[in-house]
Amino acid sequence: MRFSQIKWGLVLFWGWPVILGTAAVILPRTVSNAVAYPIILLMAIWFLLSVVALFFYFYRAWKRVGGVPNKAAHIAWLSIESAVALAAVAGIVWFFVTPS
Question: Within 10 A of 64 (CB to CB), how many other CB atoms are there?
């Protein structure tokens, strides 16, 4: 399999359940910092990769607007999709940054 044939969206999407499932199995109930920090670091790196992948996805999608026959519907859909993705990323950041 060539590197260009890999569906990176699927890899990023299924990476989250793998990371969270691994954390649920590996982390003990009394979490020691020695075990928790590498998993938190992995989740942070995976989150940044997901944000970069979303950026490139939307960048390519907005560049294709000129070649789409139904531009109004495509622009409306991309606007909604972009707003929801931005709100989701901002919500995740807000959830983990603000104190409870």
Answer: 11
Q: Using the predicted structure, report yes or no on whether residue 39 has a pLDDT greater than 80.
A: no
Which are the contacts of 36, defined by CB distance < 8 A and separation ≥ 6? 27
List, in order, residues 6 or more apart from 8 with CB less than 8 Å away. Answer: 53
The three-point CA angle 11-34-27 to 5° equals 55
Cα 38–chain centre separation: 19
For residues 48 and 65, give the distance between their C-alpha atoms in angstroms, rounded to a whole number.
26
Q: Which two tokens stand for residue 68?
A: 């789409």
pTM greater than 0.85: no
d(CA 2, CA 10): 16
Cα-based torsion angle of the residue sequence 59, 20, 10, 3 in order, rounded to the nearest 10 degrees: 90
Q: What is the residue range of 25's domain?
A: 3-97
The count of domains in the chain is 1
